[in-house]
Amino acid sequence: MGLNIQEIRNDFPVLAEEIYGKPLVYLDNAATTHKPVSVIEAEANVYRRFNSNVHRGVHHLSNICTQAFEEVRKKVASFINAASTEEIIFTKGTTESINLLSASFGETFFSEGDEVILTQMEHHSNIVPWQLLQKRKGISIQVVPVTDNGELDMDTFEKLFSPKTKLVSITHISNVLGTINPIEKIIAIAHAHDVPVVIDGAQAIHHLPVNVQQLDCDFYVFSGHKMYAPTGVGVLYGKRKWLEKMVPYQGGGEMIDKVSFSGTTFNELPYKFEAGTPNFAGVIALGRAIDYLKEKGLSDIWDYEHALFEYASEKISEVPNLRIIGKATGRTSVISFLLGSSHPFDVGTLLDKLGFALRTGHHCAQPLMDCYGIPGTVRASFAFYNTKSEIDQLVEALMRVEAMLG
Ligand code: PMP
User: Fold this and answer.
1) Pairing, β 377-381 against β 334-339
2) What is the pLDDT, as a whole number, of residue 2?
3) What is 5-30+297-405's CATH topology?
4) Is 99 in the pocket of ligand 1 (CB under 6 A)?
5) pLDDT per position as a tens digit, 252-264
6) What is the DSSP letter of 246?
7) What CA–CA distance (Å, rounded) separates 112 from 221?
8) Is 364 an active-site residue?
9) How many CB atoms lie within 10 A of CB 402?
10) What is the full DSSP assignment across 55-83?
11) CB 35 within 8 A of CB 46
12) Pairing of strands 22-23, 234-238
């Protein structure tokens, strides 16, 4: 059917902003996406009409708010095809979801000397929580190397398994290179070794359809703010068989069954992992963002964004002295590059003055930067509200910047 991009752009008020008197060209979507009016309104509406703590009151407003909150749990479960709503845990975002796993899965299933397999292209959020577990429990971290063109070295991956391997935790799509990892294959290999798999879906959930039962992943985590929803809300999907055995992450209200000083029992799933008042307004708006994505259609979004990515990859290569970092065959939505010997920060600053929002630096992936021997990159990342015309403008601006810094 195809997307009506102008109509979509009109849904996002911030896209009409000007920066230094120039129209904003926002190409920092891998860092965070903008929000359509319907999502902004959904969150504001909670505060306007039925703000009330969830699961706690018998009163009318609390019931309405609880119902709206729990409806989103159903919506998320259906969006990723989870087997049940009990497998959907609301968190602050990807980072908290992985910290929950390292703390709780780590506490329950890891002993000294056990191993977790990560990759060289992980975001710091999928490295540091495991390093904290390493300090606490004396586990060891095995790392899958990345090839020059930005793919995982699958031969080495297979060789990293040992009887001590307890978990594989891996990103679905690299936030720096745009590489789409072969997660089906990775999950199958890990399961052949009886090892569960965590997928960091922060860069994937809004770009392509995710079916957790078909993937057969054990955990899948993502953030609301990268999928057109508010900040401060995210999801941890986990197979019930693991979640049931895992110890609670944080203690507090809602996660308990009965509290006494002689011993406390815990609530059932998913509440066992949702201590304290959740970001219910954010969760309710996340539900609206899912509606928005479904209205537009993830497969049309994928087609459009992929076409945009291919157009951008070709056009951007016309800029003299521009080097794209990461050339995996399966890639999308992100292009990282360097311009001659210019520092990414200088390129980003000049682009900013011309109205372009791009990210520069190590993108919270320092081990990957080390692997390429570079301090950072400039990163253009696309959403379905971006256009070919914006890419043409970027290429023109890059030609100017190259001439200035060259
Ligand atoms: N993993 C990946 C692949 C990411 O791109 C990001 C965000 N840049 C994160 C994890 C962390 O997400 P958040 O900051 O929303 O918790």
Assistant:
1) antiparallel
2) 87
3) Aspartate Aminotransferase, domain 1 (3.90.1150)
4) no
5) 999 999 999 999 9
6) S
7) 26
8) yes
9) 18
10) TT--SHHHHHHHHHHHHHHHHHHHHTT-S
11) no
12) unpaired
Q: What separation in Å is there between the alpha carbon of 93 and the centre of ligand 1?
A: 8
Q: What is the pLDDT of residues 65-90, one digit of tens each?
A: 999 999 999 999 999 999 999 999 99
Q: Which of 65, 217, 364, 371 is catalytic?
A: 364
Pick the CATH number of 40-294 from 3.40.640.10, 1.10.150.130, 3.40.50.10400, 3.30.450.180: 3.40.640.10
Pocket test for ligand 1, best of 32, 203, 205 (most atoms within 8 A of CB): 203
pLDDT at 1 over 70: no
Quick check: CB of 95 below 6 Å from ligand 1? yes
pTM of the predicted model as reported, rounded to 2 decimal places: 0.98
Q: What is the pLDDT of residues 159-212, one digit of tens each?
A: 999 999 999 999 999 999 999 999 999 999 999 999 999 999 999 999 999 999
Domains of the chain by residue range: 5-30+297-405, 40-294
Distance of CA 121 to the CA centre of its chain: 14
CA of 123 to the centre of ligand 1 (A): 7
Q: Which two tokens stand for residue 88?
A: 């959907």
